[in-house]
From TrEMBL:
It comes from Acidisoma silvae. Homodimer. Residues 136-216 form the CR-type domain. Participates actively in the response to hyperosmotic and heat shock by preventing the aggregation of stress-denatured proteins and by disaggregating proteins, also in an autonomous, DnaK-independent fashion. Unfolded proteins bind initially to DnaJ; upon interaction with the DnaJ-bound protein, DnaK hydrolyzes its bound ATP, resulting in the formation of a stable complex. GrpE releases ADP from DnaK; ATP binding to DnaK triggers the release of the substrate protein, thus completing the reaction cycle. Zn(2+) 1 binds at C149, C152, C204, C207. Belongs to the DnaJ family. The J domain is necessary and sufficient to stimulate DnaK ATPase activity. Zinc center 1 plays an important role in the autonomous, DnaK-independent chaperone activity of DnaJ. Zinc center 2 is essential for interaction with DnaK and for DnaJ activity. Its cofactor is Zn(2+). It is found in: Cytoplasm. Zn(2+) 2 binds at C168, C171, C190, C193. PROSITE patterns: DNAJ_1, DNAJ_2, ZF_CR. The lineage of its organism: Bacteria, Pseudomonadati, Pseudomonadota, Alphaproteobacteria, Acetobacterales. The gene is dnaJ. One of its GO terms (molecular function) is zinc ion binding. This is Chaperone protein DnaJ.
Length: 381
């Protein structure tokens, strides 16, 4: 039976780019994978056909030979893919490896090669003041981590026998194992060899073959200006060591900002609540307020200012992270009712209340509300 044209099998044009071929293959491989079509012989056959076509066309030399000679280039012992053995495909996990391995930023070895040992990631927490978040700061932290063992240079073996190791029987030297979890195949580092693919014959007496030892490290962290509460800073390669030939993990620093006694923050905006006496709000005037950078600013308060009104101070807020832009500062006034009045203050307020009753225009909001109340009750009667 004659084979279908490989380009036709993938639904791709003969001049398709490598990316276009890969996209076509991914779509069909997911569609016809036997794990998604259990018991469907036709789907399994189509899956094998799609894989055979892509195995040829993804290789530039094989593709050139196919374009020139067709299927004949790989017959009679040629260099082609031949019959595709699904048992060697590794199941749906391999499809995900090919599709998403690079996208997910995997640091381990891809395909069927040995996995690269990767050290563990570390988390550290630091707390800073609001002013430190405004200006930026440097902070020294201490972290408990693992570093390469000095006694064995991170090999895990005694100095006289560093090359002596055997292929791991659990993973067959691949450094990774797979386990079925429902529909998916989950891949992880081999628990026996830790991802190295080898088992040490004569372990180091200091690290007991682990290649790393526990140690406390001090690191200086640079906190950028404008950082927000909950920000996470990643320091690549500052995590736990993985032994000789391995890749260290990362350090993730989580930043929290202590509450400030005067200022509140909302992104790049700073809020400052300023209480005003009744006389200040009624008569108006000028007040002096602090600014986060340590300076002072004067704010003019118009006569008749109401509680809750805000006044804007441009560019007095936080800088926007990784930007030259700067937010604003808002002064929100809160008119405070006086307490613990002196006799004279009470007399003055009583005089004021008498005047206010006769001249209601001084409190239009109150007068308007009670006018509506009177209308409400008049309508009821």
């Amino acid at each position: 039976m004659a084979k279908n044209d490989y380009y036709t099998t993938l639904g791709a044009a003969r001049d398709a780019s490598a990316d276009d071929l890969k996209k076509a293959y991914r779509k069909l491989a997911m569609q016809f994978h036997p794990d998604r079509n259990p018991g469907d012989k036709a789907a399994e056959a189509k899956f094998k056909e799609v894989n055979e076509a892509y195995e040829i066309l993804k290789d530039e030399q094989k593709r050139a030979a196919y374009d020139r000679y067709g299927h004949a280039a790989f017959e009679n012992g040629g260099a082609g893919a031949g019959g595709f053995d699904f048992s060697q495909a590794g199941g749906l996990g391999d499809i995900f490896d090919q599709m998403f391995g690079d996208f997910m930023g995997r640091r381990g070895g891809g395909g069927g090669g040995r996995a690269t040992r990767v050290g563990g990631d570390i988390r550290a927490n630091i707390e800073i003041d609001l002013s430190e978040a405004y200006f930026g700061t440097k902070s020294t932290i201490k972290v408990q981590t693992r570093v390469n063992c000095d006694a064995c240079d991170g090999t895990g073996s005694e100095a006289k026998d560093r090359a002596a190791s055997d292929t791991c029987s659990t993973c067959g030297g691949m450094g990774k194992v797979r386990a079925q979890q429902g529909f998916f195949l989950v891949e992880r580092s081999c628990p026996t060899c830790g991802g190295s693919g080898r088992v040490i014959r004569n372990p180091c007496r200091v690290c007991h073959g682990q290649a790393t030892v526990a140690r406390e490290r001090s690191l200086q962290i640079t906190v950028p200006s404008g950082v927000e509460d909950g920000t996470r800073i990643r320091l690549t390669g500052e995590g736990e060591a993985a032994g000789a030939g391995g890749q260290p993990g990362d350090l993730y620093v989580h930043i929290s900002i202590r509450p400030h006694a005067i200022f509140q923050r909302d992104g790049a905006t700073i809020l400052c609540r300023v209480p005003l006496r009744i006389s200040q709000a009624a008569l108006g005037g000028e007040i002096e307020v602090p600014v986060i950078d340590g300076s002072r600013a004067k704010v003019k308060i118009p006569a008749g200012t109401q509680s809750g009104e805000q006044f804007r101070l441009r560019s007095k807020g936080f800088s926007v992270l990784r930007s030259a832009a700067r937010g604003d500062m808002y002064i929100q006034v809160a008119v405070e009712t006086p307490q613990h009045l002196t006799r004279r203050q009470r007399e003055l307020l009583e005089e004021f209340e008498q005047e206010a009753t006769q001249h209601a225009k001084g409190s239009p909001e109150a007068e308007g509300f009670f006018a509506k109340v009177r209308e409400f009750f008049d309508g009821k009667s």
